[in-house]
Specification:
12 helices, metal-binding, alpha/beta, 30% helix, binds zinc ion, 9-stranded parallel β-sheet, Metal_Hydrolase, metal ion binding, Hydantoinase/dihydroPyrase, binds dihydropyrimidine-2,4(1H,3H)-dione
Length: 468
């Protein structure tokens, strides 16, 4: 037949339009959009459903080394399987630079872990943890031209943080190569000071994690990152923004003419620091950085989603088991919050939460939902328009959402490798029931029909470099 697959009668939404039409797919690409299309081997009736670009989660951690004896709860198989069931067709995990090891060697190891195990497509960000001349002068520029077009730098974590001079040097490479830099903004020295004070006072329960990383440390670092980007004259992404004070820094920088992208995550809409309280170390389940704040900050983040301070809504999926042999969320001895690994799972629940709380509750429209969860990720990280939209010539990465599904989030029904969900018990309306990756049906009415290995690695393109 003429087409491999036709999706009939659904309400299609892109970042700019919402309309009813049929979509015809051939050889993994969208080849026609119109009415009364026929001539396909297979037809999916999407009447009464929303037909959206597959989600792109540009901030996930999979199989990332996380410190002495600590393993992440997801490998590429479980991480991408969970992503797929949450309506995603592409995820962007991080490749952490190992000090003293060529980045390419570490990247090869990640590719080995991914190969044959993917349920979604993936593209990699690099994490720059040191700034030797070979790395900055040769490795990063070469890799930027080979499809590794984004990297993350940290202003916090001993052994990982870069100082301002190092960040400037790294930003300089981004400018000349057209790479995109993501910055984790928290003031490490201030955090150290607060941790020492809390430990000295015997205040070591999980809640102290939030107290030792207050909004001020995020606000200051966000301001400093934006200042460094202004000096280096390069666009940046401020990742995982948790509150209004950091958002104001982004808005002020934009008013000065800076190109800056803002990202927020479900934890800053749905959780508060009070979740870090709780019996028997339960609060560890909600330890992430920056920490969840308060109800007012949640509302501020919603305003940012509505008004455009945020371009990106990512999960920051960073899964650790709570209670397990390797269960470092629940460390033997529970000596201090300081030993709880930072990060929580959420790749499968990211879009259902925003769909339910955002679209169904009338805070954002469908097009804004698509922009925040798919299109803007593809544009920011060099995958657009192959990924991130429904248009002729784009990959047929599509999620069909049933807005009538009512579901209570239960970890037992999710597909990740962790042993809990921070969103347990939250009720959502709407779920992606059928997910299509490059024309292959991967999830059909909630059932897995795709195979591991169906996902592929995708190279990303750099921006047009500017030489100042
Ligand atoms: N930063 C992240 O991006 N993810 C988890 C922990 C962290 O600090
Ligand atoms: Zn971070
Ligand atoms: Zn305290
Ligand atoms: Zn992260």
């Amino acid at each position: 037949s003429t087409f491999d697959l036709i999706i009939k009668g659904g309400t299609i939404a892109t970042a700019s339009d919402v309309y009813t039409a049929d979509i015809a797919i051939k050889d993994g690409k969208i080849v026609q959009i119109g009415t009364s299309l026929d001539g396909a081997e297979k037809v999916i009736d999407a009447t009464g459903k929303y037909v959206l670009p597959g989600g792109i989660d540009s901030h996930v951690h999979i199989s990332q080394p996380s410190g002495e004896g600590i393993s992440m709860a997801d490998d590429f198989e479980t991480g991408t399987r969970s992503a797929l069931f949450g309506g995603n067709t592409t995820v962007l995990p991080f490749c952490l630079q190992e000090k003293g090891t060529p980045l390419r060697q570490t990247l090869n190891a990640y590719h080995k872990l991914a190969e044959g195990n993917l349920y979604t497509d993936v593209s990699f960000h690099l994490i720059v943890s040191e700034t030797n001349p070979t790395l900055l002068g040769q490795e990063l520029p070469a890799l930027a031209g080979e499809g590794y077009a984004s990297f993350k730098v940290f202003m916090t974590y001993e052994g990982l943080r870069l100082n301002d001079a190092e960040i400037l040097k790294t930003l300089d490479v981004a400018r000349s190569t057209g790479s995109t830099v993501m910055i984790h903004c928290e003031n490490e020295d201030a955090i150290r000071y607060l941790i020492e004070k809390h430990e000295a006072a015997g205040d070591v329960a999980p809640r102290a994690h939030a107290s030792t990383r207050p909004a001020a440390v995020e606000r200051e670092a966000t301001h400093r990152a934006l200042t460094l980007a202004e000096i280096a004259d390069v666009p940046i992404v401020i990742v995982h923004v948790s509150n209004g004070q950091a958002m104001e820094e982004i808005s002020r920088a934009r008013a000065r003419g800076l190109k800056v992208f803002g990202e927020t995550c479900p934890q800053y809409l749905m959780l508060t620091a009070e979740d870090l309280d709780g019996m028997d170390w339960e609060g560890a389940k909600f330890v992430c950085s920056p920490p969840p704040r308060d109800k007012a900050a949640q509302e501020e983040c919603w305003r940012g989603i509505e008004t455009g301070v945020f371009d990106l809504f990512s999960s920051d999926h960073c899964p650790f088991k709570y209670d397990d042999e390797r269960g470092k969320k629940f460390p033997k001895g529970k000596e201090s919050f300081r030993h709880i690994p930072n990060g929580i799972p959420g790749v499968e629940t990211r879009m259902p939460i925003l769909f339910s709380e955002g679209v169904m509750k009338g805070r954002i429209d469908l097009s804004r939902f698509v922009a925040l969860t798919s299109t803007n990720h593809a544009k920011t990280y060099g995958l657009y328009p192959q990924k991130g939209t429904i248009s002729i010539g784009s990959d047929a990465d599509i999620a069909i959402w049933d807005p009538s599904v009512k579901r209570t989030i239960r970890h037992a029904e999710l597909h990740d490798g962790a042993d809990y969900s921070p969103y347990e018990g939250i009720e959502v309306t709407g779920w992606p029931t059928t997910v299509i990756l490059r024309g292959s049906v991967m999830v059909s009415d909630g059932e897995l029909v795709g195979k591991k290995g169906d996902g592929q690695y995708q190279t990303a393109r750099t921006r047009t470099p500017n030489s100042l």
